[in-house]
Amino acid sequence: MRLKGLNIRQARGRWYVSYRATGESLVKGFEGTREQLERHMSSHAFRLALTMAETRDRAPTYAEGTLGALIEWFKSDCPRWEKLKPASQEDYQKTFDYLEKGRSERFGPLLDTQVSLINQPAVYQLRNAAAKEKWGRFADKMVSHLSTLFKEAVKVGKLPLNPAHGVEKLHDADPNANHEWTEDEVQTAIWLAPDHLLTPLILARYQGFRGQTCADLAWGHYARDEKTGMAFTIRLRKNNEQSWFPCATETRRHLDTLSKKSPRICLNSDGKPWASEKVMQGAVSDYLTGLKADGLIREGCTLHGLRVTYAASIRRRGFDTGIVADALGDRSRRMGEHYTRHVEKELGRLKVFRRSKG
């Protein structure tokens, strides 16, 4: 763990950590022992925050009105940046690093370009160049990141409009990705899963939890409940809402077999919390890829697809899409419709079939 260059202090029983060179705050009001603080400072989120502080300290200063200055503003003064989860900040930083090295025939160094000169055709040129130098999905992500950057700039009067708005994607999403699993596929994956991957599979299928929720889930979120026996109460990162979820029988049966060797419920093969949700999801993805190679499950069977499977099971029991969205912890009814649109088509065809039989 890197302690060099950090200012670590304690006040009124709480810990504060800042990057000494710039004074940028990295930890505010941490409660616990010095050992617990150092464990926190070993986390992926803290290491990313420290790396970014070091990068900002070394970063060149760009002239006002340039793309580089706009990115500096976005990362230092825009509230939207602070709301991004660490994994998303890391993705944005990859875009910014790419742009920092880039040049165009028209503008020269990209980050020295005046943003007032960037129009939609220029964004298309950037997209096409990124696709050629990297790949299509990277180019699409870059455009999405630029669109967010420009949208925030419009809000505070730094730009009159968002030139990346409406730019078409190069990469077509796979319509078969994240589809509903069959029950045989679910049981096969659960039966063959190593112990450290079984828990996220169970939580995704029988609770409908996202990968990030599985990675965040702690034993402190799981408690006895008068109405349902056991339940989870957790603040969801997706919408920052405190949410309550009854514990399904299948989930409870599995959790009863686990030893509480860590505050977190989902642990890696070493019995420690996952370094990040990305690492956990990557491990699950690698396991599922092996099952696909053996012909045991179909392409498109993913961890998120188990959330779709959970949603579909609710809709098939006759509950409307609003109830589906509530069960998933989503604010919008449209998300219930999104996860179960294939079920709606099936129900429509079933009505036609039954009417024709009558």
What can you see in these coordinates?
The chain has 358 residues and is mainly α. The chain has helices at residues 34-40, 44-58, 67-77, 79-83, 86-101, 120-133, 136-155, 183-192, 195-207, 211-216, 249-255, 277-293, 303-316, 321-328, 333-357, and strands spanning 6-11, 14-19, 24-31, 103-104, 108-109, 222-225, 229-236, 241-246. The strands form three sheets. Strands 1-2-3 form a three-stranded antiparallel sheet, covered by helices on one side. The protein has a three-stranded antiparallel sheet with strand order 6-7-8, with no helix packed on it. Helix 5 (86-101) packs across helix 7 (136-155). 28% of the residues are buried.
Beta content comes to 5-15%
CATH-defined architecture of the largest domain? Orthogonal Bundle
Number of strands: 8
CATH topology descriptor of the largest domain: hpI Integrase, Chain A
CATH class of the largest domain reads Mainly Alpha
Q: Which residue ranges are poorly predicted, with pLDDT under 50 across at least 5 consecutive positions?
A: none
Strand order of the largest sheet: 1-2-3
Distance between the termini: 72 Å
> Structural class per helix/strand content?
mainly alpha
Biggest β-sheet, characterized?
Answer: 3 strands, antiparallel
